[in-house]
Amino acid sequence: MRLAVTRLDLESFESLPLHARRCVFWEVDPASSARTAENAIFGDLGAFESEFDKEAWISGLLLEWGTCGQVAVDGQTGHFVGTAFYAPPGRVPRSRHFPTSPVSADAVLLTSIRSEPGFEEAVPILLDSVVTDLVRRGVRAVEAFGIVRTPAESRSPDSPPAESLPHPEDVGELGALESISGELSFWADEAIVEITRAMHDSPQSDLCTECIIDADFLKDSGFDVVASHPRFPRFRLELDEGLGWKHEVEHALEKLVVMAAIDLAGRERSASVPVGRRQR
Q: Which of 94, 109, 129, 121 is nearest to 217 (CA)?
């Protein structure tokens, strides 16, 4: 399967996958979104859907800040099969309501990376494209809010039922992040209820879990935890370290290619100069 990644522009907005085109979980301040507790419990995402607001958000960023999204394209069909969105934290209203906010002033916030079913390999490719773009623009770091998924969110059909899982007291302290979601994967549903109840009065109880990046993925991709939390840890990737070397290598290679081309052109010019005639 061949995938290509390109920068998002307004011309391609209509080609975005439906959820990516409509969901404004990050882009709209939750205080302006009227949503009842009953809707939150049953997972009604209607309050997050506004194609107009999503397009306006992208348009504003493209005009004032520059590229704010990367899209993965299936080379066989031309369909968009993955998206990544990022922006200065001041342009992401939802970020202010996370328990591990605020995002560092020197960082760009990576809000979401997601792919269509069957195209999961697009996710790390999209992340590489985001990092490459930000390094070239001189951004110092990228941060992201991760989500430690509950057993109900991450359990596969073959996983054991909650009743057979150990109690939280048997797996250590809640706040330990040595294994980000490894802990929660063993907790009983009762423990998750307690966590959710503790956050119920916060705007963060309204969630679109599809638009929050998996904490394990961020950890495995080289991000470091800078603000720990049992549910929403905040991660950071220094772009002058880690993947930052990639840009330096590319720049060095480009410079070598240019120098080689100049040298070759000089040699060709020298060879084309006619040799003076030998006088008799």
A: 121
Non-local CB neighbours of 132 within 8 Å, separated by 6+ positions: 246, 247
Per-residue confidence (pLDDT) for residue 207, from 0 to 100: 85
Range of the domain at 192: 3-241
269 contacts: CB under 8 Å, gap ≥ 6: none
* Of residues 47, 29, 50, 24, the one with CA closest to residue 37: 47
Do 86 and 205 fall into the same domain? yes
- This prediction's pTM: 0.69
If asked whether residues 208 and 149 sit together in one domain, one would say yes
Q: Strand (E) positions, 54-176? A: 69-74, 80-87, 107-115, 141-147
Domain match, 111 and 140 both: yes
Overall number of domains in the chain: 2
Whether the per-residue pLDDT at 193 is higher than 70: the answer is no
Answer whether the bond into residue 151 is a cis peptide, omega within 30°: no
- Residue 24 and residue 55 in contact, taking contact as beta carbons nearer than 8 Å: no
Identify whether residues 7 and 105 lie together within a single domain: yes
Identity at 241, one-letter amino acid code: E
